[in-house]
Structures are given as structure tokens and as C-alpha cells.
Amino acid sequence: MTSVKPYFLIIAIAGLFLSFRSEAGVTEKMPCLIPVPQDLKMGEGCFRFSQSTNIRGSRSYPVLYLQEKLNASGLATDPSGQAEEIVFSISPKNGLPEEGYRLEIGEKRIMIESSDNAGAFYAVQTLLQLMPPRIYSGGADIEEWTVPCLEINDYPRFSYRGMMLDVSRTFYDASYIKKHIEWLAYHKINRFHWHLADDNGWRIEIRKHPELTEKGAWRGPDEVIEPSFGSGNKRYGGYYTQKEIREIVRLAAERNIEIIPEIDLPGHSRAIAAVFPEILCPVEGGASVQGETKNVWCVSREENYRLIEDIIKEIASMFPSEYIHLGGDEVALASWKECPSCQKLMKECGYTDENQLLFHFVRRVKGIVEKYGKKLAGWDEIMEDSSIGKDATVYAWRSVGTAEKSVRSGYRTVMQVAEYCYVDMKQSPLERGHNWAGIVTLEKLYSFDPLDKFNFTDEEKENVAGIQGGFWSELGNRPYRFVEYQNYPRTAAIAEIGWSSPESRDYPDFYRRLVTSHYDRMYHQGIAFRLPYPDVKYFEKENAVKVRLPYPSAVVRYTVDGSEPDSDSPVCMSAIVTDSPRKFRFATFFNNDLKSISVGASNIKLFDTLAVCSDVITNMGEHTRFPLSNLKDGNAATYFRSDRKAVPGDYIEYRFGTPLSCSEIIVETGIPDITLYGVTDGYVEYSYNGIDYVKGDTFVDGVAVIRPDQQVKSVRINITGKSDGPVLAVQDLKIVF
Ligand code: TNX
To answer: What is the Å distance from ligand 1's center to 721 Cα?
Structure first.
């Protein structure tokens, strides 16, 4: 029985929120700008664009950029036009702060003043945010093109406002990077940290060593790099040519974005070592924290520094940035412990532990970087030895503590503290993402302040260059456009932390601006951003499922049969009376195009992970910390990890002491919640009698389902293709009764 009742909660919340755009598109209330400007005064009336709006100013990039954006939306600009004008004044004589601007909008004239191009560019970005969001996607209805009269005086709090993108684990091609940069510019982000080489792919053309990209940019069954991170049993990869890089650098510069290239050394180097195995120590050491082996450069091999110099030389010529980032993180020191010549070097230099070899290496590469006129940047492991020199930039990532230490030790520090700034972390417990640094909700990220919590002295504050968000792309293969899902809207929060004054920061207000206007902007910018899912609960007394909207104007659609809601599913307008709530799924939709993850009622259990197995067997060895017995403990958080890659013929079998009656068995593989290292190719089968087997689903994204029509005695996972992670991870069976 399912019927519909009005649901008061939705209406009550909706009343609390305001919208600033009226029917005619004329802005009447405070505009919802992100990042919020330092100072804004509203005026009366509005400026109306026409087909002959005159733009006056030098042919500098901010002026051309505005012209291009207006033209792309069908708004003609006429240099001889008389009707109304936009006037640029870009000159150091204006005496405005770096990257700062004054934007004055009158009914007949928009005045933009700045001391540098960057400032004028940001005035243009603010102006675009004041226009209808369709300015970003073209398709103008000229009647609507108005902006409110106002005056803004604005400048950034930090000079470094960055986002990092890992293109090694997942590859994003040159045309995608251009879009990525455009999106950053819309948010007044001015640094793009490009993580170009890691264990799972080398992504930058080095002319002297073409093998690096001919071989090192590809993984697959017949490539030098094995498949990983969902690339499956096929060839996967790609790289940027030097021509593409130069084009991207130029495009970025015209958006006030400096690109900091990173080649991660001496760890995280599996890709280059797969091409040039001679760079490794002769004896294989242990695995890195991420389970990668053969990924550490030998410190004592002199030829290695010549190869590094070849690479740095070309990188220095491609990127105008003062900095080259050379990693330095998560080095598996064990390889140097086993290497006779590294041990000899240690003795000669009087080092007592292998960490000193890391600093030895960093000093050497720093020298090379300097030879080519650049400065060294690295992850915060490099700060632990004063011999590195205080002219190195430290990217603090491990903790608030390492960030504080770096600043107090006198390093120029970029704050990319994982527990706040890693946008590869989950955004909620239900969503895909890493969780080793915790769950990074939008609100948690927004609460981070690079200065406030530390009590730095004025001198120490000078060392804080700014803030950066980082996207590591191990999980980039799915779902659809996950990179944008993880980056947005969290990039908007990074932008506001980096730009706005701490006094003006207020999460409820940020969220209001986000859902009222910025969602629309991001939508027209072409970003597949993350939408929050509704809060759904089942009320047993009333026999009703109730939905709380994540924001007042949210559209929530639902299904009643357990399937994924889509844009044709009905919109949830009220409480739903039902006595079978288990199969209901709800999702938030934006313009019927983007949607949140789908959820059921959070207070009813959809399945159980009971200790139903009397025995679990496999032909694979088990990892000591993730034994096979984890699969029969009934605890969904513990799981089994094999001691090697899974190969065809491998199996895992769950046996039930008492035959199991249920409607569904969900066989999920991969690390719980993170879903890394699951079955790549395989299927499930099950038995009613322990002798005969019935073939079930093949695995899709590591999951297979069984719908038995009798009692089940055993379930078996059969592997048909190599798994694409270094190990296989398998979870408890999820049983739906
Ligand atoms: C740690 S952050 C790493 C990366 C991983 C990331 C995943 C850093 C310097 N190293 O190699 O991709 O965690 O969150």
C-alpha cells in the first residue's frame, strides 16, 4: 500500500531561504558571489548590456577575455558604441593591491580599475558572476543581460590559491586540462599544481628520452606497467606532448594561473623505473605504503642524477614557474637498506639511518633545479633536515602538526593538509572516496583556516603562502566524471578560504550562496559537480517514508522498486505512506542532468553481514593483517586481502553450516567503502547442495549479485582475469532476507 501525504517540513525550510533573482532576471538583493569580496556596496538600478556595449581599455588579456565571453553569448561589443560602456583602467598608478580590483557598476558605465592584469581579470570574473549564469554557456536572451549597480573593492587574502591534480593514476587529456584550468580561473584560483609522474604513469614528453612516454605512459597486460586502479585488462594511458604543455601554460597565464609541475622522486617512481629498471637498487626492497614495489631510485647510482638532469632541464624550459616540485614523499626506505652501494654511501657520508639518504638525494636534485634557474618544492617529508635550505617550498600534507612545524621552521609553506584539503577523501560516509584522512565534507573543508588555529607570530605568518586542495586520482575511473564530483563544490570552498577575509567566512551563508546561484553557474560552466543527497527516514508509527531536502529548491526523485532514480522518476513532494519501505531509492537532481548518489531510508537496514559462514577457503595466500577469517566474523568493516595479484583460476568459497534462506546475496569485493582492489574479471556461482553449482552474475565494478530460489549451501568467487591491483580484497557477504 503506497499513498501520498503532504509533507510540511519541506515547505517550512523553503521559507527560510531567499532567492536574489526575480522573474525578469534583475538582481535585487545581495548577489551570491563566491569567493565573497572584501567590500561590497549595493547601489540603485542596473546596467543593461546591449548589442553595442562599448569596451574601452588596452588590448590586455582581461579585456580580450571579457570581450570573448560576451561575444560567445551573442552579445556584440561595439568600440564606437555610444549607449553604455565598460571602461578598464589597468595601471600600477591606481595603487591597488596585487590581484586586487575596484569594480563600479553604474547604469551607463562599468568601471574596472586595477594595478595589474590579474586584478582586472578578477574584476571580470566577478562581473560574470553578477550576470545570468548562462553567460558561461552561451545562448543569450538579450532582455536578461543586466547587472546590478554596485561598488566592489576586492583583493585576495593569500597570494597562493591552488588546486593539485594527479594525472598519473587517472589520465586527463590536454583538452580536459584546459577546461579544468578555465574552471579554476572562474574561482579566482591562481595556481595549478600538476602532478605529472607517479607509480602508475609518466605523463610528460621528454624529448631526450622518448621511451618515457612511449612506454611509461601506458599500462596494460602487455605494457611495462601493470594494470591498476580500474584500468582493467586493457591498454590504458596517455601523455602530454611538449606542444600541448606550452599551449596549456599560455592559456593558464592568460587566466592568471601559474602551473607548478611535479615529478615525484625518489619514491612513487614505478613508471619511470619500469622504463629504465637500471635506476633501481640492484636488490629489491619492500613495498611502499601503497603496496608498490620497484618504485624507488637508487641514491648511490651516479648516472641517475644525469637522467634526472635531462628531465629537469626540459621541464624547466616548458614551465615559466619559479618552482619545480620534486615530491619526496612516502619513500620505501627498505630498498636502500638492502642495497650494498647505498649502504656504502651511508658509511662514507657518516649517515646513521636511511632517511639521511633521502635528504642526500633531495639536496642533489635541489642543486640540479637551481642550475636551471628554479627553486625546489617538495612534500613535507623534505623539511625534516635543515640541510635542505630554507629557500625550499614545503607542501604540508600529512597533518596540521607538520604544517605548523614547516611554517615555524621558516619554510615557505603551502597548506594542503590532508584532513581538510584532500578532495580525494569521501564527502560523506556513503560516497566513494579515500578515507585515510577522514571524511572531508564541504563544511569541514570550509572550516579550515591556514592561520587562525595556529597562533603564528607575524613573522611566521609570512611563511604561509596560502592554501591548496588536492585531488589524487586512484579512484578516478568511476563513477561518471568523478574528478569533477570530487573537486566541486569543494574547490569553491578552497577559493573562499584563499581569497576572502576570515571575518566574512560563514558556512551557512556560503552554502546559501552556493545553492542559490553557484550551482547554476557551475552547471553552465559545464562542471559535473556533486549534489548533496536527501535525508530519508522511515517512521514506523506512521508507516511513512519522509524526505528532508538538502536545500530548499532541491528536486528529489524516487523509485519504489530498488532501481536507480532517473530524470523520468517521479518528484517527491510529500511523505510517502508505505509498509514496504526497503525498496525506495531517492536522489537529488539538478536540471534533470546531474544527480546525487541515491539513498534509501537511513534508519532501516537493507542487508545484513551476519556471521553465516562456517568456513571460507581460497587457494591464495592471505595478508597477515587481513586474514581470511575476516570473512566470517560478521563485521562489514574487516575484509580479506590476498598476498598477491589474483590470476585466472583463483577462487574464494564461502560455506554455510546451516543452509541460508534469503532473497539476495550481494558479493562485494575491493576494500570496503573505498572499493579499490576488487575483482576485475570474474563471476560468482552458488550451490544448493554443496555439489552442483549454478553460475551467477559476472562482476561489474567489483560487485556481483545472487538471487537464489532455494536455500544456499555455498557461494564461490571465480577469477577469470588478472586483478588490476597488487592484491585482491574481498568483503563479507551482504545478505538481503
Ligand atoms: C598520499 S599526498 C599520497 C599520494 C596518494 C594519496 C591518496 C602524498 C604526498 N602522497 O600518493 O595518492 O595519499 O590520498
So the answer is: 28
**Which residue lies with its CA nearest to atom 8 of ligand 1?**
329
Tell me, using a 6 A CB cutoff, whether residue 329 lines ligand 1. yes
CA of 442 to the centre of ligand 1 (A): 20
- Cβ of 395 below 6 Å from ligand 1: no
Q: Residues 6 or more apart from 295 whose CB is under 8 A from it?
A: 199, 267, 268, 269, 270, 273, 288, 332
- Residue 253 and residue 320 in contact, taking contact as beta carbons nearer than 8 Å: yes
Put simply, whether the predicted model's pTM sits higher than 0.70 gets the answer: yes
**Exposure of 698 in the CB half-sphere (CA atoms within 13 A):** 5
| Residue whose entry in the numeric block shows the C-alpha cell 599551449 | 247
Q: Who wins on pLDDT, 484 or 724?
A: 484
Name the CA radius of gyration of the chain, rounded. Answer: 28
For the segment 413-464, what is each residue's pLDDT rounded down to a tens digit? 999 999 999 999 999 999 999 999 999 999 999 999 999 989 999 999 999 9
The 3-state secondary structure of 654-710 reads EEEEEEECCCEEEEEECCCCCCCCCCCEEEEEEECCCCCCEEEEECECCEEEECCCC
pLDDT number for residue 15? 29
Instruction: Give the torsion through C-alpha atoms of 421, 424, 428, 429, to 10 deg.
Output: -130
Output the CA 658–ligand 1 centroid distance in Å.
Answer: 44
Mean local confidence (pLDDT), 380-393 = 94
CA distance 469 to 424: 9
**pLDDT on residue 142:** 64
Q: Hey, whose CA ends up nearest to atom 9 of ligand 1?
A: 329
- Type and span of the H or E element at 120: helix 117-130
- β-bridge partners, 455: none
pLDDT at 696 > cutoff 60 = yes
Residue 62 pLDDT > 70, yes or no?
yes
What pLDDT does 422 receive?
A: 98
Determine if residue 734 is left, alpha or beta; phi over 0 gives left, psi from -120 to 50 gives alpha, anything else beta.
Answer: beta
Residue 379 Cβ contacting ligand 1 at under 6 Å: yes
Most ligand 1 atoms within 8 A of CB, residue of 200, 472, 475 to mutate: 472
Instruction: Express each pLDDT in 86-102 by its tens digit.
Output: 999 999 999 999 999 99
Phi, psi of 641 (to 5 degrees): -125, 130
Q: Please give the Cα distance from 431 to 21 (Å, whole number).
A: 33
